[in-house]
Amino acid sequence: MKLRKTAIRALATVAGTTLVATGMAVTPAAAQTFVPCSPGALAGAITAANASGDTLILAPGCVYALTAPLPSIQNTINILGNGATLTRSGAAPAFRILKVDAVGKLSLHLTTISNGDASGDFGGGIRNDGTLNVVHSVIRNNRADFSGGIGGNTGSTTRVIQSIISGNTVTRNGGGLANDGDMTIAQSSITQNTALEKGGGVANDATLKIVQSSIQQNEASGPTGVGGGIANFGGAGATTTLTESRVSDNTATNAPGGIYNDTGSVALLLSIVHNNHPTNCAGSPTTVPGCLG
Question: Does the keyword Signal apply (predicted)?
């Protein structure tokens, strides 16, 4: 089945306009600040933006090699990356790249987030306790205990639009992403992420919507690993809905390799679950309607 491109409107634009993603609009701050290609300049710009909100325009193609954590996002801040990379320097101690506090609202555009390390914690690349929009961006090669790439905490709202989540790892759940709040993933690719326990691609225990996206070649590789593609667990309130999406070629140590559903609900709407190992959905404590094998 060829996935159609009509079910969702996702518009990412530059400063002074509006981001619309799955029905939620975020209006950028009126101010704009160009950030030179310097980690210190970026940290200072975020600190200043926390006072009144701002749109930070990064140096095109710059690699901001961080040796210390950036300030947490505590206001409405838009980062227009222009293809820049925010990465933890290889010689630096472990820290995540970005954190959005409960009062913060971050929109991240055209930016790569890499090599974040929240070992022993949640959200290796980005931890979101507030509101986060990730658009046309790449989240890769980050690590944590939970949510290697992006972690949406309790009470948070996370939108990932037309982005790539790849090569992230965790020692527990949610190799690519983990959600404890309200998360939407649209027109995005979640690929080659690894968890040792549940959800190599995505782990969810709250409200997760996946639209026109692919979850492929992820792994739940530890001795108890299940749900190489997606793991939905945490009680009856955990809901995952896939619309016009594909879950394929994921693997787990134990069945199922595609989608693991514990006591919550998973709905497949015009979606494909195919060629996962050892099974697609068979072996879940709770059946995934419409998933065969």
Answer: yes
